[in-house]
Design brief:
The protein has helices at about 30-45, 65-75, 90-95, 150-165, 185-200, 275-280, 290-300, and strands at about 5-10, 50-55, 80-85, 100-105, 105-110, 115-120, 125, 135, 170-175, 205-210, 215-220, 220-225, 235, 240, 245-250, 255-265. It is of the alpha/beta class. A 6-stranded mixed beta sheet has the order 4-3-2-1-15-16. The relative contact order is 0.16. Bound molecules: fe (ii) ion.
């Protein structure tokens, strides 16, 4: 009998680093420290069934960073399932994260729901001489890219949606489609999701990450939930930094769900104002590279 509420904790953009590693972009919280605080908050406050991580598990897609991620995520005594982000590298993630209880399955079925894990980086992958689709050779070719499903991932999603016996589907994916932030606006990615959401009413919602700006918005009558990061978070309205955090979801048998945002307030992560350069990045006026140059200039001692 389907009567239970299925409870999911969503982490995203954990950006784990190897021991002594430095963060890409030049400014970040200590993600190991942020994970510990978020982990304690989750285990103190929730009795969940599943932990989801919607990508950017590692900061540079390095094997040593997945070791740290696996060690940290392995502390949960419930299953963890992951989809990749643009900071991840496909082979390193699959090999490095694999542990009993930590998976990269594309489908997790529970209580009448199909939780569908989508790779929104699949469109950047290229066929090698064996016909396998692998990451571009240059790590930078994937970093800072907007979402792109590509024909193979779209076909795979369609197969799942046409085959599932679940009554309701919830999509977990790194890049939020049609997100109202100019930095991540991408017409091609938006149109891929427009087609899927129009053709498949069985999709009841989307949980994403990527922006490091926790949010909820509507798309084709579905709620899109965007998760906070452990690396850094921002409130665009207040123009302040935000503490690390997570979403806690209740999935109900009638096809509805609730999602509640939790930010772990602490003096280590004050809600201080952020500057004009960062706002320009979010508004799509400058690139990540230009922001990194500005940040580096400011960190140099003046004479
Ligand atoms: Fe990220």
């Amino acid at each position: 009998m389907v009567s239970e509420t299925f409870r999911v904790i969503q982490l995203s953009d954990t950006h784990f680093l190897e021991e002594g590693g430095s963060a890409e972009g030049g400014f970040a919280y200590d993600t190991a420290e942020a994970f510990d605080a978020v982990f304690d908050h989750i285990t103190d406050n929730h009795n969940a069934d599943l932990v989801v991580v919607t990508g950017d598990v590692a900061d540079h897609g390095e094997p040593a960073q997945y070791e740290q991620a696996a060690r940290a995520l392995g502390r949960f005594d419930i299953p963890v399932n992951i989809c990749p982000g643009n900071h991840d590298q496909d082979a390193a993630l699959t090999v490095g994260i694999g542990r009993p209880g930590i998976g990269t399955s594309s489908v997790v079925n529970a209580d009448g729901w199909c939780h569908l894990f989508v790779d929104s980086n699949a469109g950047v992958m290229l066929p090698d001489e064996h016909g396998r689709h692998i990451d571009p050779v240059e790590t930078a070719d994937r970093l800072h890219r907007n979402g792109t499903l590509g024909a193979r991932e779209v076909a795979s999603i369609q197969d799942t949606l046409n085959t599932t016996s679940a009554e309701h589907v919830f999509v977990w994916v790194h890049h939020p489609p049609s997100c109202p932030i100019p930095m991540v606006d991408d017409a091609n990615y938006a149109s891929e999701w427009d087609a899927l959401l129009t053709a498949f009413p069985i999709i009841k919602g989307i949980g994403a990450g990527h922006t490091h700006i926790p949010d909820k918005y509507q798309l084709h009558g579905r709620e899109v939930v965007v998760a906070p990061s452990l690396k850094h978070n921002f409130d665009l309205e207040a123009q302040t930094w935000l503490p690390p955090g997570y979403w806690a979801y209740d999935f109900h048998a009638d096809g509805t769900f609730d999602a509640e945002l939790h930010l772990v307030e602490d003096t280590r992560w004050p809600r201080r104002p952020f500057g004009r350069a960062l706002m320009s990045l979010f508004q799509g006026e400058i690139t990540h590279t230009q922001l990194a140059e500005i940040t580096m200039r400011r960190q140099q001692p003046s004479n």
